[in-house]
Amino acid sequence: MLPHDVLCAVAAFSHRNELFSLMLTSRDLQLECAKQVLRDPVLLNSNNGIMSFIYFMHRDQRRRWRFLRSLEFGEARIDPRAAEALGRVISRASHLESLHFENAEATLGAHPQLGLGLAAIPTVKHIVIACIAQHACRMLEAMSWPLETAVLEKSVLDLDWHRAEEDSLTRMHPAALLKNARATLQSLEYDMWSEFLLQRLPEYPVYPVLHTLRFAGSWLPPTSQWPLTYPNLKNLMVSSIDGDEEEMVLCTESRLENLQDHAEVGCWPELEHFSGGALDLYSLGLPCRIHNVDISVSFRSLSSLEPALADAQPNQLTISVWQHELYDGRTPELELPSHLRMPGMAKVQTMRLKINAGAPVPTVDFDAFLEHTFDALAPLDLRELVLFVAYPDCKDDTYKCVDPDTSDSEGEAAVRPPSPFSFPPPCPLQIWAETVDARALASRAFDAIHSIQSFEVIIHPPDSIIYRYPFGSIEQEDRATRIHRDEITAPVL
Q1: How would DSSP label each residue in 176-217?
Q2: Nearest to residue 333, comparing CAs of 294, 375, 300, 380?
Q3: Distances in Å between the alpha carbon of 101 and those of 248, 326, 453?
Q4: Is 96 strand, coil or helix?
């Protein structure tokens, strides 16, 4: 038989099923194999799974509990007896660091003992909790975890609870939910949170070490308290508003309200990074410098771009474009280049322009669009320009062929998937992306923008490529080419 240390080394590289088999061969290896089994997250998604897990952890004089690092609960509802049994023993997981709930209300609502048992663990650092209402709220209010990261997804309006307890709405505010971990929390994300649970609090706890905040999936609440609650924030990510004409009016109202509040209570002196939509940054009304701004624009949000960047004055700017109206040349007033001449871009030194075409673009003169873009950027003191183009593949079955000759009813065309031998022609953007001469494009950029020293073009092919037109590579990886100015202007010997 191999020495014990050799067998332990073998166990360290074994699959979970192999570890269970290895445990049956030697009693001396059971604890070491259990340690390796528990190195990966444990998923509990059924009553039988919970009872088997309790039985497994009970062996080796309960010493296995100290090896449990990550625990995940699935969406399935569990029996109250299984939840109670787990709640009585789960506090033994003295080194548990990560908790994940797919449906916290269904899981924690099975029995109150489970939430209390989890709250008693002293070592949890990372949580992801989805579907949150009273039961998750009570667990978070009872815990004293040294949390470092928290992801809260989808609040659930429990009307019976809210009617029974008047303070339940304020208790469900994310800043209030995690107040017991305010001394250690570094990153907070909350997504799809009801606006009824984001009203102003009478008193806000302070999170002194929180550096990253992400807000998504609901209408932007009043944000003037953010600088007071998260005074040392560095990275802010907001994705809440799509933007139409009616929402633009509401965004303007939110901006004015936030600007007035910030004037009274103050704001951060600066942020390192912001990412989100142009309307999000516009609505926030942050009177502070933001060094790195990553925003997406649509033709509806173009008017908000200039005031959004006016206070930010970024050094690095990434603009993502998803709508072909901004670059196809058919509506000049919506062209992105005409909106790039603004004071808010005066300090930009690194510019990234991302064109994301999710579907074929019927008509576009992309070279003309780039000429207009280079002319618009010429007055800036740019040092680096990056062009990213994600283009569609017209051979993808997603894009159907329309054959009016096989219509079953008058005036209605029958839609059929294209055959492998009758693909639609490639769209102009695809042809451009697969035939572009990166060196010639860089030369044009250097001639138009005298300050830039580096130009990079990144071509991102679609994931759906099956067949390839003859004018390009069949590779699906990004094709990135970076060219420095001296490579273009250097004399040829």
Answers
A1: HHTGGGTTT--EEEEES--GGGSSPPSS----TT--EEEEES
A2: 300
A3: 36, 41, 49
A4: coil
Locus of tokens 């929402």: 247
Under 8 Å between Cβ of 378 and 413: no
Which of helix, strand or coil describes residue 155?
Answer: strand
The letter for the amino acid at 314 is P
Question: For 476, how many CA atoms within 13 A lie in the half-sphere containing its CB?
Answer: 7
Q: Report yes or no: 349 and 382 within 8 Å, Cβ to Cβ.
A: yes
Closest CA to 423 of 462, 387, 461, 396: 396
Nearest to 268 by CA among 317, 233, 315: 233
Q: Which of 295, 286, 271 has its CA nearest to residue 352? A: 295
User: In 247-337, at which residue ranges do the beta strands (DSSP E only) sit?
Assistant: 270-277, 289-297, 316-321
Query: How far apart, in whole angstroms, are the C-alpha atoms of residue 3 and residue 127?
Result: 40
- What digits encode the pLDDT tens for the residues 431-479? 888 889 999 999 999 999 999 999 999 998 876 544 444 444 445 578 8
Cα 370 versus chain centre, distance: 29
pLDDT in tens, 300-315: 888 889 999 998 999 9
Tokens read off for 130: 């989805």
Structure tokens at 415: 């839609």
If we measure between CA atoms, which residue out of 243, 242, 193 comes closest to residue 213? 193
Neighbours of 459 (CB within 10 A): 21
pLDDT > 60? residue 421: no
Give me the DSSP letters along 322-368. --GGGTSSS-GGG-GGGG--SGGGTT--EEEEEEE-SS--SS--HHH
Helix (H, G, I), strand (E, B) or coil at 414: strand
The residue assigned the tokens 């690095």 is 316
Burial class (CB in 10 A: 0-12, 13-18, 19+), 349: middle
Q: How far is residue 113 from each of residues 71, 119, 131, measured CA to CA in Å?
A: 17, 10, 19
Contact call for residues 148 and 172 (beta carbons, < 8 A): no
For 97, what's the count of Cα atoms within 13 Å in the CB-facing half-sphere?
8
Torsion of CA 353, 354, 357, 363, to 10 degrees: 10
Mean pLDDT over all residues of the chain?
Answer: 83
